Amino acid sequence: MSAYLIRRLIQMVIVLIISSMAIYTLLNMVPGGPFDGLMQNADAKTRVTPEQIERMNAMLGLDKPPAIRFIAWATGDDWMGVLDEAWAGDGRGIIRGDFGMSFKERRPVLEMMGDRIKKTVVITGLSAILAIVIAIPIGIFSAVRQYSKADYAVTLFTFIGTAIPGFWFALMAIVLFGIKFQDWGLPQLPTKGWASLRAPRPGTLTHTLGVTQGSLADVALHLVIPVVVLGLLQMAGWTRFMRSSMLEVLQQDYVRTARAKGLGERFVVIKHALRNALIPLVTIVTFELPFLFGGTILLEQIFSIPGMGLMYFEGLSQFDWPVVQGYLLISAVLTVIATLLSDILYTVVDPRIRLG
């Protein structure tokens, strides 16, 4: 086990090095820069000249060759003065826990991520738990009662859930819980932000329940719609996959043998079939978690949640490459961790599997 983990950790480091090189290269191939918009100002007094743009690029080190800038971004630029006396660096490099400075805000990227990543992790974690808790029992129930009316209803639900675009589902949730509830005289659920920015107004659920502005209960009410929307979108696909996996296992010889011995159906399903059916689902769920992290980009934009997704979107629109690079690198780290986590979970789900 220890030898396997060491081998996998070495592989993970190699993958992350290649990923960081790819991320940096692709972003530097994009035309434009953080100051290009300043040259398009209509007011001649505020319009910036190309010479001023060159000086600002030099201040950020953007006039240096891409290969040198990548090395400085990865390993730190406190030693770059040895190669270039004009280099004015202020970052320590990603291998020393520093993603550099934001071009726009001139703040460390890690400082910008600090509170935002907590919000994104909370949303993705709660939605994943919700999806798993609902998808597994429904998938088992649908497989055990194959071709029943309940099975057809579950199948219809999963097809609809996988076909609905996430942004449309989010907008419909806002319309239902934010607008229609008001028309029907029902308390409205919060549909924007992480918490209330002002005292709750009459007609909202936060006001009806007497929730204090900015309290934990206030945050929980604001998370209801985003978590449910993201959870239901994942739950549809996971339910369908769990049903298919369970159906395949229920047709195996050892399951028929267990039934022939007179064991109860519930015991056969839970004790013999479920653990083997969970093995493929473990792979799907663990690999979905990094994509779930990235899937919040659109939802955070729609629900105005100041998380990692919204920061990434703003970084792209403003050519703030250190912010974008930091987000993409974290996504790559989550992906390689998910591959290792899936292998470890195999041994938990089925003790017969040993890592060697």
Give a count of the beta strands, DSSP E runs of length 2 or more: 0
Architecture of the largest domain, CATH level 2? Orthogonal Bundle
List the secondary-structure elements in sequence, H or E. Answer: HHHHHHHHHHHHH
Please state the overall shape, judged from the principal axes of the Cα atoms.
flat
Number of helices: 13
Q: Output the radius of gyration.
A: 25 Å
Helix content: 55-70%
Q: Describe the main β-sheet briefly.
A: none
Strand % is: under 5%
Overall structural class, as computed from helix and strand content, comes to mainly alpha
- Taking pLDDT < 50 over at least 5 consecutive residues as the criterion, the unreliable ranges are none
Let me know the CATH homologous superfamily of the largest domain.
Answer: MetI-like
- CATH topology description of the largest domain: MetI-like fold
Which CATH class of the largest domain applies here?
Answer: Mainly Alpha
Q: State mean pLDDT (0 to 100 scale).
A: 81
Task: State the end-to-end distance.
Answer: 6 Å
Number of spatially distinct domains: 2
